[in-house]
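Everyone, carefully examine this protein record:
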Amino acid sequence: MLFLQQLVNALMLGSVYVTVAVAFTLTIGILNFLNFTIPTLFMLAGMLGWALSSWGLPFGLGGPIHWLPAIMLGILAAIIVSLIVERFTFRYLKTKYGDSTEHAIPLVSSLGFLLIVENLVRIAYGTEGRRFEGPDADLTLHVGGILVRVPQLVSLLITVLIVLGLTQLLKRSRIGRGLRAIAENPDAANVLGVDTAKIVPVVFMLTGVLCGLAGALFAVNYGEVSPMMGEDVGAKAIAGMVIGGLGSIWGAVLGGLVVGFLELMTVHFIGADTVQVVVWGALLLMLIVKPSGLLGHNSIGKGKL
């Protein structure tokens, strides 16, 4: 029974990694660069949700607000910051330097945003972990002796709906066709009339939504936030993305679940201190045995999104 409980916990934890891994997959699969601001967006939603529900609006503009609108404002902040990153890592740099996706400039500039935002949060709220006061009621279901928390179940369902909705968006909508065209060949997409100036911000908006939701659900589920919360989740989401297959959304889903399973099984059978060794050992093994990942293809952006 304990093993089954750990399997359920692994599924719930894996859903967080899935959401962040899909966010990474969108930028690397469509724009071909690793967006380092993703862990920060995850952290920002959780930390601002805690700050607004505990301290209230800044500069004395208002007192603490209910945790639900607070966490929603945190998600909104993640979306806004993601769009600001797009403005200065792609739109401005592409205008100044040409096709910035062919250079390391977006990657380095996104790393700069990560460091700036993370340190601003540390300056404002300190470096220690904070208790996030979510739902007051005991929202725990007992199913055949297995405990399932309702917020975690809702988190899993939201993750599934997001991935299904995103898949349909990419396959059936005009925006999705534009995104897939950019992933295949940005120059050809421009020739065919795809307005990259309008389409590319959609990638960053979706990234902000995914990371904001993941950070909010993590705060509600586990009841704790910190300025460093995005680093560990972001690293494991990258591992899940690579294990599942670079550029493949369903690969990110599978890889995120695999990482969640590996982490909880390692804690159960070996100990928490060896989690990083097992997860990154699995990543290295995958790169040796099957570099394209479980569901990946040989070329990023070719017929996967």
About this structure: The chain has a mean pLDDT of 83. Residues 14-132+139-228 form one domain. Residues 113 and 131 are 26 Å apart (CA to CA).
